[in-house]
Amino acid sequence: MLQQAFNGLVGGAFYALLALGLAVIFGMLGVVNFAHGAFYMLGAFGSYVLLDSFGVNFWLALVLVPIVLGLGGIAVERLFIRRLAPLDPLYNFLFTFGLALILQDLVKREYGVQSQPYPRPTQLAGSIDLGLFSYPAYQVFVLGVSVVVCVLVWVVLTRTRVGMIVRAATERPELTRALGIDVARWVTPVFGFGVALAGLAGVLAAPMRAVNPLMGGDLIITVFAVVVIGGLGSIFGSVAAGFAIGLISALGNLYVPALSQTLVFILMAVVLLWRPAGLFGREEAA
């Protein structure tokens, strides 16, 4: 049971990183970024292409790919998202949905739908003795990186002036504007940061999950459920729900395998019936 719970925490690490980026983007822009899964897929494929074509190892890709995708996210926001922002939010939803399909098809055209292999770094090839059981070193690394990134983001958002402005603009944009802060100037870097988090999750996923064009589409639906459970726009709620859903899903696979594919959505329905705004969401978001 403990080993399965640890599996759940590792799976929750990806949910937490992706949900954190989604929550920040939705909170500030009010945009449900359906292309988030495609950026996650590009993170995995970016690391694969760098290794296969240029010999760039995992450690360098872990830094380069999120930066490149973050810059790409900034370009997308400046060229498209910003122009659609004054319109009904449905337009940006449709745009990001279409963007996800375009990115998936471009990758499928180049690499097909077959999964591409990506080796684990040699430094993390073995197992670590955790006392009661041994566990693959790479999975422990993924969990550690996710926790460190989430903690660093929390420290920046709560302990720095810039972070407090971003957090206020994310969770209470109307009130932040009323206090005289120009929320618009923070939109572009925040969108890029959210995309970079998706790219980071993709790079981390490459050595342990199938690298293929559909990997983002398979995951993003669950991540949307995580964000809804945590509370739309709630940064803490998204991270907490990400790890919790990973844990619940893993234990569900162990004890109630018949419900393993639907357990997350059953939980989402129960949470919404109890708290329409999500566990940590503000009631205005209901």
Features:
single chain, 286 residues, mainly alpha, two-stranded antiparallel sheet, 11 helices, 73% helix, 2% strand, globular
Q: Could you characterize the architecture of this molecule?
A:
The protein is mostly helical. It contains eleven helices and two strands; from the N terminus they run ααααββααααααα. It has a two-stranded antiparallel ribbon with strand order 1-2. Helix 1 packs antiparallel against helix 8, helix 2 crosses helix 9 and helix 9 runs parallel beside helix 11. 45% of the residues are buried.
Chart the SSEs and their pairings.
Layout: H1 2-29, H2 36-54, H3 58-84, H4 89-111, E1 127-129, E2 134-136, H5 137-159, H6 161-171, H7 173-178, H8 184-205, H9 215-230, H10 235-255, H11 263-274
Antiparallel strand pairs: 1-2
Helix pairs in contact: 1-5, 1-6, 1-8, 1-9, 1-10, 2-3, 2-4, 2-8, 2-9, 3-8, 5-6, 9-10, 9-11
Q: Describe the largest sheet.
A: 2 strands, antiparallel
Helix content: over 70%
Question: Averaged pLDDT, please?
Answer: 89
Strands, total number: 2
Radius of gyration: 19 Å
Low-pLDDT ranges: none
Termini separation: 36 Å
Give the percentage of residues in beta strands.
under 5%
Shape: globular
- Total helices: the number is 11
Give the topology string: H per helix, E per strand: HHHHEEHHHHHHH
**Biggest β-sheet: strands ordered side by side in the sheet:** 1-2
The computed structural class is: mainly alpha
